[in-house]
Amino acid sequence: MQRSLRPFCALLVVLFATASAAAGDGGAAVVRIVAEPAISAGSFRFAGTPAGTLQVTPDRDSLAASDLAAGLYKSTLEAMDPNAVAAGYRLVEIRCDDPASSGDVASRTARFKIDPGKTVTCTFMLAAGGACICPKEGIWNANNLPGQMACTGAMTMTLPLAPSSMSGTFKIENGCETVVAAGFSEDEAPLVMHRNSNCGYQGSVGGEQDGIPMTIDFVWSVTSDEAIVGSLHSEVSQQGMTCVMSRDFELDFAQ
Fold first, then answer.
1. Residue 186: band (very low, low, confident or very high) from pLDDT cuts 50, 70, 90
2. How does DSSP classify residue 255?
3. Cis amide leading into 37 (omega within 30)
């Protein structure tokens, strides 16, 4: 769950200062609806790219936008089928099959990074019923999975983020509405995560370097009181160029 802005900021300063033209086209973005228990029929409206109403049937669970120029796109789940809502279904996770693309459960938004000729699929995972799970207070281990920083616009490039691991502490506040995570990076300020309507958590850290403002957004999905899966996302535009940093991570209770 590494969240230091400094290495990211320094690299962005160099990239924005040396950007050159690049372009591409012909990709596709796909959104899918997958529910547990399964939903045999339902209407789900998306805005952005892709946009439209997905009528879920046993033979159809996806909506696509094709012939896209290389670049960044967003698709937001604006409305869920009323019958699914009444049955207690909620959005619990957004999974993308490309490491440079990511989902934000709190805003119900998938962010696509489309390369020339590439198809990226983001799956909106729904689950029904059940009370929210509260993580345990104590020491947690964070396993940062490989990630990417992808830049488009005046310069197009993709840079890897190496995997890493670290430990920190959780403090539970406000009846588990808030989790304060501390010690997971060299930054002194803790990461404050707030529970959302989907029983997950969201939070962010921000800063500025050389006049470039940036924020890293975090999303957690709590799978048990001792296990969390999450993702981080940051998007910065400057000098005709947009860079997106994303990575997934896992958090496990230690003691």
1. low
2. -
3. yes
